[in-house]
Amino acid sequence: MTDNSKYSRENPFDVPEGYFDTMEDRIEERIRAEENEGAPGQKFIRIIKPILGLAASFALAFLLIDYPITKILSKYTGRTIDQTGEGTKLNEELLTGYRYLDENTFFLALTSKEETADFESDEILSFLTSELDDYEVYAEIIN
Amino acid sequence: MSVSKKTRKGYMINEEQLLSGLKDESTKKDAFRMLVTTYKQRLYWHIRKIVLNHDDADDILQNTFVKVWRNIDSFRSESGLYTWLYRIATNESLTFLNQKKKKMFGMDEEINDYLVENIQSDPYFNGDDIQRKLQEAIARLPEKQRIVFNMRYYDDIKYQDMEKILETSAGALKASFHHAVKKIEDYLKSTD
Q1: Minimal Cα–Cα distance from A47 to chain B, Å?
Q2: Which of A35, A133, B74, B123 is 20 to 30 A from residue B188's alpha carbon, by CA?
């Protein structure tokens, strides 16, 4: 540099009093603390703790929100929780039945022509009028 | 750092003793304590001149020694304990500054301003105005030039040792030092 005498090489910085005296103890303390923190049992607890906490809050939220809402809604729709459950059960059964069809059976069911029976007009008429009494049949004919 | 032949020879003897102590489980703790006692001041000042703040330097120094403790078993003696310690301390300091830089949106100028502010507000700065100006000039240097300048000018570390610590060729280190001196001179002239 241009004027070396002006800019001394002396260190212009300082440290708090006694700073270096306790350095060894502080470092040993920190290492000990980190090793304790890293012990296998404690490490497992440390990992599992937030997961358990999260699961517990979800369960609580379910109890506090979902259950009362379902209860209130069931009153308005006139369906009990059990009935809703039955509906779900029925849907599941239908889906399961469909799932158990193998590929060939399913394909056959799609491509096969439905057997249609040929009915005579008299048969159709007798079917349609089977639940009507004579007066109603007469009224239908007049109209 | 004084690296006279006599002192350097002294370090070598200590290094050998320390290393054999550190490799033996029964003496590891005592040897590590001795290592901290031997290198704490030199490493502290090396770190302090990079980050220019006592509290940050204290954190980084502790991180450095914790890292040394964790990795001492995998240390290979051929690289030299003293250069290995300096390399860890330098890397820890640069990691700290890079984290600061990220928080400042990666601007080099802003990290230099932060370092200058550290000098201006440092309660442990005992120098006069001329020394403060010199420190500000050093703080405005690019990272690598600043480290090389401090190691050469204040710690008197040889280029051959610096090569191992900074993993840079002696030629590049000399060029960095030369550029640093030139920039400091220009800054001091401009602020006179």
Answers
A1: 22
A2: B123
